[in-house]
Amino acid sequence: MFTAGKGRRVAIGAVVVGAVIALSGCASGDPLADENSSSDGETLVVGSQQYYSNEIVAEIYSQALENAGYTIDRQFQIGAREVYLPEVEEGNIDVFPEYTGSLLQALDPSVTSGTSDEVYSQLVEALPEELSVLDPAEASDQNSWTVTQAFADQYDLTDIASLSNVTEPITVGGNSELQTRPYGPDALQELYGVTVAGFTAVEDSGGPLTVKALVDNTIQLTNIYTASPLIEANDLIALEDPDGLFLPDNIVPVVSDKVDADATDILNEISAALSAEDLVSMNAESVDEQKSSEEIATAWLTENDLLG
Amino acid sequence: MNWIGNNLPLIGERTLDHIAITAPVILLSFLISVPIGWVANRFTASRGIVLSASGVFYAIPSLPLFVALPVILGTGLRSPVNVTIGLTLYGIALMVRSTADGLASVDPDVTQSATAMGFSDSSRFWRVELPLAGPVLLAGLRVVSVSTVSLATVVAVLGVPTLGLFFTDGVERNILGEIWAGIVMTIVIALVFDVIIVQLGRLLMPWTRSSSAAVSRPGRRTRVVAPV
Amino acid sequence: MNLLFEGFAWIFDPAHHGGDEGIGTRILQHLGITLVVMVIASLIAIPLGYLIGHTGRGRSVVVALSGGVRALPTLGVISLIALSVGIGFTAPVIALVILAIPSILAGAYSGFEAVDRRTIDAARAVGMTEGQIVTRVEVPLGLPLLIGGLRSATLQVIATATLADYVGAGGLGRYIFSGQATNDYPQMLAGSILVIMLALVSEALFSLLQRSLVPAGVVAAEQRQPDGETSGGPTRKSGPRRSLIAGARR
């Protein structure tokens, strides 16, 4: 049950929970509603998923905004998307780091493919009126079909289609919902003729348990987020995806209308500077060096001269 | 294990969060269970039903309950009301049985004597049955306390900050020290609560002090009652 | 209520019955884990509990340890074990055995302790050896409390075995995880309902067992003098147990 928020990224039915919360209306006496009454500067609530990488980005947003004089209320480690999205929609959270493709799919499950730009513009359309997305970053953290280096070497694997070279039965492992995702085992069969022999659930969203199962060869194919430091640390290969089986997942701040022009500029500057390599190396600092998100965020902001 | 050294303030903060969530739940479970247990014990017909229901209730997997409750209550998933009610329901499921058992353990001779001495039904309950059932209630409360403290780690997945966040984050980041910190602090809170409950019990039930060792022994518990 | 209905509808949908992913397979996996866990836990806890109950030694240590173990968050334990032994049955089985031991242990030793010392003295006086006292007096008279302990342990294991799927061991937890991840509430409820039904079946079986195994003399005493099971501390949420020996009361 302790699964990463990120792992539950594509919350197809977030709308269901949203409706429920909407029905409950004001009854849900939210503890975060009125905390900005006394302070001079605007108080902005920054949220994060229950995912360390997302928390680092949220912390970067928070520190940069604080540096500009905003008062920040951090509501980090909020569970999965189905938990926090309704709260963002209600206006309880003002800034939230999101992923373009996954958020789009949560809002509109019918979308299954597209380039970064297409996904971004569709996302702008799909968002409810009271929310907006600012500029997306280059950094992305998306789903991938991942194998071990040894397995890739053995069958000469480079992209997803090359999985059809494999002659032994492939057991796929991952969060149980992977089985029914549009890019799941069925898609491999239909699009690439790759036969999947079995599915083993490992519910840690491509975390250490999944990686261990892959390295132990209990499973041969799994879904790991491309920004995960576990890929490099364990000699894993994220198979290339030339056909866009997975939606691009660029990091993007989702904001409420309380975020003014100055704050918007600050967040856009961050997105402009946040590269794909930066995200992977910050994730690695969190996992390998066990640094806190505060430390990592401060270091990155200083390095990019964003705390001036 | 350097994670622990670097994150002591965070560990402290989550420990306090955990206590803030669990302490009211334990108290509520106790207060609500007493009348239910009394009803269960008072009427033979209700005893079996109430006790079986509470036993099976405890088998409900916790995560679905926490997700289904807001639908019924109309609260937000992350709302403290949702979490408190969910945890309290499990607490009651455990505590009702102890309450009923405690009240049943009072020697009928004693209650009959009390009636004969002119106690009204309500004063007999408050001044005779409840105090005599005390040791069993106390033992039940200790179980409720431990189980609530442990169960509260689960609500972390809903985004409610408790020590459970150290499991989710620790597993994702593969930091064993963080997982251990969560486990150890959960046990520490459980032990501290246990000591507090036992001390409160001694304070409120001074007559059990001499034989407090027997309090949690089913076979001898009845004898604790007899000499009173 | 509507949602509950959808949960039942999900269960009765024939499309969810057969095959590797079907309800039948998941129930068997769930029961398999439960059975293995209960056998291992019993093999450890019953002899140990009898030893403690018979000698009266080590009780306080075990009570303290059991309290600590009860506070262990099972998912944390499963994760830690799985990180070293890998995914599959092993990690959840070990974690659940740890979970089950305190209740069984408490049932075993409290069953012995509940036997009136005078009954044991009498047994000794009529010339029984220590071994005979254990096998012919303490074990049969302690049986109801032991079964009570097994009963509560089984209930806990059935409920908690839902976590086994977290590390790839399957079971009914799959429906809960999968349903939660995709906001498929009917599926999630269906999983919960099935777990509760297993719990009910286990409760019913144990209550039959308790009735059929209580020695005849004790039943008579129980009827004459209904006495609450005094569970609490060591044994929790077990079936209705009764004071075993009429004499214990006075």
Automatic annotation (TrEMBL), chain A:
Gene Ontology cellular-component annotations: ATP-binding cassette (ABC) transporter complex
Q: Which GO terms describe its molecular function?
A: transmembrane transporter activity
Instruction: Look up keyword Coiled coil and say if it applies.
Output: no
- Identify the PROSITE patterns for this entry: PROKAR_LIPOPROTEIN
Keyword Phosphoprotein attached: no
Question: What InterPro entries does the annotation carry?
Answer: ABC_Gly_betaine_transp_sub-bd
Please state the span of the N-terminal signal peptide per the UniProt entry: 1-29
- All copies of domain ABC-type glycine betaine transport system substrate-binding, residue ranges: 43-303
Pfam families (UniProt xref)? OpuAC
Name the UniProt key words of this record, in alphabetical order. Signal
- Could you tell me what this protein is called? Osmoprotectant transport system substrate-binding protein
Protein species of origin: Glaciihabitans tibetensis
Automatic annotation (TrEMBL), chain B:
Domain of life of the organism encoding this protein: Bacteria
Please name the GO terms of the biological process aspect recorded for this protein, alphabetically: glycine betaine transport; transmembrane transport
Which GO terms of the cellular component aspect does the record hold? plasma membrane
The question of whether Nucleotide-binding is a record keyword is answered with: no
Q: Give the ABC transmembrane type-1 domain ranges.
A: 15-197
> Which keywords does the record carry?
Membrane, Transmembrane, Transmembrane helix, Transport
Q: Which Pfam families match?
A: BPD_transp_1
Q: What InterPro entries does its record include?
A: ABC_transp_perm/SBD, MetI-like, MetI-like_sf
This protein's membrane topology, according to the annotation, is: Multi-pass membrane protein
Which coarse location class describes where this protein primarily resides? membrane
**TM spans, by residue?**
20-40, 49-73, 132-159, 179-200
**Where found in the cell?**
Cell membrane; Membrane
PANTHER family, sorted: GLYCINE BETAINE/L-PROLINE TRANSPORT SYSTEM PERMEASE PROTEIN PROW (PTHR30177), OSMOPROTECTANT IMPORT PERMEASE PROTEIN OSMW (PTHR30177:SF4)
Q: What family does the database annotate?
A: Belongs to the binding-protein-dependent transport system permease family.
Q: Can you name this protein?
A: Osmoprotectant transport system permease protein
Automatic annotation (TrEMBL), chain C:
Q: Sorted alphabetically, which CDD domains does this protein's record hold?
A: TM_PBP2
Using the UniProt record, give the first listed, main subcellular location. Answer: membrane
Region Disordered, as annotated, extends over 222-250
The transmembrane residues are 27-50, 62-83, 89-109, 157-177, 189-209
Asked whether the UniProt record includes Nucleus among its keywords, one would answer no
- Pfam families, alphabetically? BPD_transp_1
Q: Where in the cell is it found?
A: Cell membrane; Membrane
Q: Mention any one GO cellular component term assigned to this protein in its UniProt record.
A: plasma membrane
UniProt keyword list? Membrane, Transmembrane, Transmembrane helix, Transport
Biological process (GO) annotations?
glycine betaine transport; transmembrane transport
Q: What membrane topology does the annotation report for this chain?
A: Multi-pass membrane protein
InterPro entries according to UniProt: ABC_transp_perm/SBD (IPR051204), MetI-like (IPR000515), MetI-like_sf (IPR035906)
Q: Where is the ABC transmembrane type-1 domain?
A: 27-206
Q: Which SUPFAM superfamilies match?
A: MetI-like
Q: Which family does it belong to?
A: Belongs to the binding-protein-dependent transport system permease family.
> Per its UniProt record, what PANTHER family does this chain match?
GLYCINE BETAINE/L-PROLINE TRANSPORT SYSTEM PERMEASE PROTEIN PROW (PTHR30177), POSSIBLE OSMOPROTECTANT (GLYCINE BETAINE_CARNITINE_CHOLINE_L-PROLINE) TRANSPORT INTEGRAL MEMBRANE PROTEIN ABC TRANSPORTER PROZ (PTHR30177:SF33)
Q: Supply the name of the protein.
A: Osmoprotectant transport system permease protein
